[in-house]
Amino acid sequence: MWRSGLRQRVKELLMILPSCSFLPPSPSPSQHVAFTKKPLLSLANASLCSPGTMSTATNLDGIFKEKQVLRSKVRKSLKSMDPSLRSQEDDAIQSLVLEAPWFKSSQRLCAYITCSALREVDTSKLLSQILQNPTKDGSAQNAKKLYVPRVEDKNSHMRMLNISSMDDLIANSMDILEPAPVDQHGNAREDVMQANNPVDLFLLPGLAFDKSGRRLGRGGGYYDTFLRKYQELAEERDWRQPLLVALSYSLQIIDDGAIPVTLNDVPVDVLVSPAGVIPISQAALNRFDIGL
Ligand SMILES: Nc1nc2c(c(=O)[nH]1)N(C=O)[C@@H](CNc1ccc(C(=O)N[C@@H](CCC(=O)O)C(=O)O)cc1)CN2
Ligand SMILES: Nc1ncnc2c1ncn2[C@@H]1O[C@H](COP(=O)(O)OP(=O)(O)OP(=O)(O)O)[C@@H](O)[C@H]1O
């Protein structure tokens, strides 16, 4: 019942990004199939792409420049956001997530640890709910498993490692809290790519979003690289694809089409802002229909 092939997923995601700059005008089913195997566009050989159907190195440079301009604008707006509005929005967003059936039913989650210097939507209440001792409500079945990011190198390489407490975290060179690769007993932490069970939900950070699922990250390519690999893993294992949910302050939602994207950018399924939960992809609408 949960079988949801990556091919179907890519179709759904292509449907929600009709004006994506780098999508071929009307991809044929065979093109969709081709997209399932590799990163959607290799930046290294982008210049080999035929003009008219795909991007060239030159317009990729343009896109990356546009992304930088937009990042600077959004960073500025976030810096000048009123602290009491920020805190109201943090509460509203987290309450919406905590109440959502797709959050309540998730057993394995990947979430970011908010870095206040980056002015990201707060996840602290969500994390403490996820990590709460399951014996509190008497049922170990309600226990959720949490994986959080650890940057391994500057080559867009990030892992998601299992933690069981906020005490498992230490600040990295960017001042973001992340887990050490081994726990206090010297055992390697479980890497989500080696886990035996699927992740149900990703809670994603970002700088800007639109209501069609486009997401502008911080420019490292960490999440896009990771998400693509995870989607491939889920496809290989015949797992249901995880729901990709972005958390956004109101000012981070911008007009459709204003976020420049390349084929490497992974669209999100759901956007949560203080105004509410917006299901975007067909996968999200299907899950919302059945309450999961
Ligand atoms: N909380 C959190 N953890 C995360 C991410 C994230 O976005 N948020 N990441 C998501 O990738 C990865 C780390 N990537 C990062 C990429 C850039 C910056 C950063 O400080 N950027 C500065 C600008 C730096 C510059 O351009 O010189 C900034 O955005 O202000 C931080 C983390 C993994 N962990
Ligand atoms: N002009 C360029 N040509 C080729 N590659 C670039 C260029 N500018 C940036 N990159 C690389 O492209 C990758 C992805 O950048 P992108 O802007 O898509 O990141 P992002 O989506 O903001 O980040 P994340 O996925 O971590 O949220 C990064 O590894 C970056 O180093």
Bound molecules: the ligand Nc1nc2c(c(=O)[nH]1)N(C=O)[C@@H](CNc1ccc(C(=O)N[C@@H](CCC(=O)O)C(=O)O)cc1)CN2, adenosine-5'-triphosphate
Runs with pLDDT <50, length 5+? 10-16, 18-55
Number of helices: 8
- From the alpha carbons, calculate the radius of gyration and give it in angstroms: 19 Å
Q: Mean pLDDT, nearest integer?
A: 84
Q: H/E order of the elements?
A: HHHHHEHEEEEEEEHEEEH
Principal-axes shape call: globular
What helical percentage do the residues reach? 25-40%
The largest beta-sheet arranges its strands as 3-2-1-6-9-10-11
Count of individual beta strands: 11
Structural class of the secondary elements?
alpha/beta
The profile of the biggest β sheet is: 7 strands, mixed
Content of β-strand: 15-25%
Distance between the termini: 13 Å
Question: Could you explain how this protein is built, in words?
Answer:
With about 290 residues, this protein is α/β, with parallel strands linked by helices. Strand 2 and strand 3 form a beta hairpin. The chain has a 7-stranded mixed β-sheet, sandwiched between helices. About 30% of the residues lie in helices and about 15% in strands. The chain has helices spanning about 5-15, 30-35, 55-80, 85-100, 100-105, 125-130, 220-235, 280-290, and strands at about 110, 145-155, 155-165, 170, 175-180, 200-205, 210, 215, 245, 270-275, 275-280. It contains 8 helices and 11 strands. Adenosine-5'-triphosphate binds near residues 217 and 223. Its cofactor is Mg(2+). InterPro entries: FTHF_cligase, FTHF_cligase-like_sf, NagB/RpiA_transferase-like. One of its GO terms (cellular component) is mitochondrion.
